[in-house]
Amino acid sequence: MSVLTMQDTIIQTNNVSVYYGDKQAVKNISMDIERNSVTAFIGPSGCGKSTLLRSLNRMNDLVPSCRVTGSIVVDGIDINSQQVNIESLRQIVGMVFQRANPFFKSIYENIAFAPRFHGMTDRRELDELVETSLRKAALWDEVKDRLRDSALSLSGGQQQRLCIARAIAMQPTILLLDEPASALDPISTMKIEELVTQLKEEYTIVIVTHNLHQAARISDKTAFFLLGELIEMDETAKIFTSPENDKTEAYISGRFG
Ligand SMILES: Nc1ncnc2c1ncn2[C@@H]1O[C@H](COP(=O)(O)OP(=O)(O)OP(=O)(O)O)[C@@H](O)[C@H]1O
């Protein structure tokens, strides 16, 4: 492997399995994810996409029955090592969930709350961070005159972009998006898709989606999962036009799932 290739890999999973109690939800997954790319996880419901995604920032730690084996290296750090500080990890690897979950606070506070908690107290610095984060999440123009309004006064699509802005404010390297547009109308979905395409200039994005058209539109690489196994991962164009595996072909052509 060339040095350049190694530098380009920002997430490397090696033989990762995830169990809920005795049940194995993710089976021996080894994959490389490139820096500043969009990778889509696709596959039928229950195939382990979200479970694998959540293991990339140790969100599964919150599930007592959950156990992860194998190694996951993120930006050179073995994230399952005892020494890893989970808060720092989640700062590097931000996450946005299917249902927008803004805090019951103002639009401004949704962005400023965590950075302030982590020590940024200068008002001007916080103002700047709020503006930059909202701009990057393509929400600034819609909310700049109502920053003190409750985040809950925003539409569902705006709330989801606010959650993306909130994740961006922590200056992550990687953004994990778990079906971020599945609860949104087509226009809000389009905005999220445009946003993902812009954000990959600065961040590495891994997105779980049920929407195959969405995966085809916005991702560089696509990984197809079935019953906890990674069946095939390749350039998105290849997965959707000439996949190697018959099961991938059957799934993308709508024959099951
Ligand atoms: N907290 C949990 N406790 C026990 N089992 C779980 C838990 N979360 C997920 N599972 C099981 O693990 C398997 C994989 O679930 P996961 O949510 O990762 O799949 P998915 O591909 O993301 O599905 P979907 O597309 O429906 O969100 C499923 O069988 C599911 O029932």
From TrEMBL:
Keywords: ATP-binding, Hydrolase, Nucleotide-binding, Transport
Any one GO CC term of the record: membrane
Domain of life: Bacteria
EC code: 3.6.3.27
Membrane-spanning residues: none
Any GO BP annotation: phosphate ion transmembrane transport
One example GO MF annotation: ATP hydrolysis activity
Location of the ABC transporter domain: 11-252
Gene3D superfamilies the record matches: P-loop containing nucleotide triphosphate hydrolases
InterPro entries the UniProt entry points to: AAA+_ATPase (IPR003593), ABC_transporter-like_ATP-bd (IPR003439), ABC_transporter-like_CS (IPR017871), P-loop_NTPase (IPR027417), PstB-like (IPR005670)
Database matches in SUPFAM superfamilies: P-loop containing nucleoside triphosphate hydrolases
Descriptive protein name: Phosphate ABC transporter ATP-binding protein
Organism: Brevibacillus agri
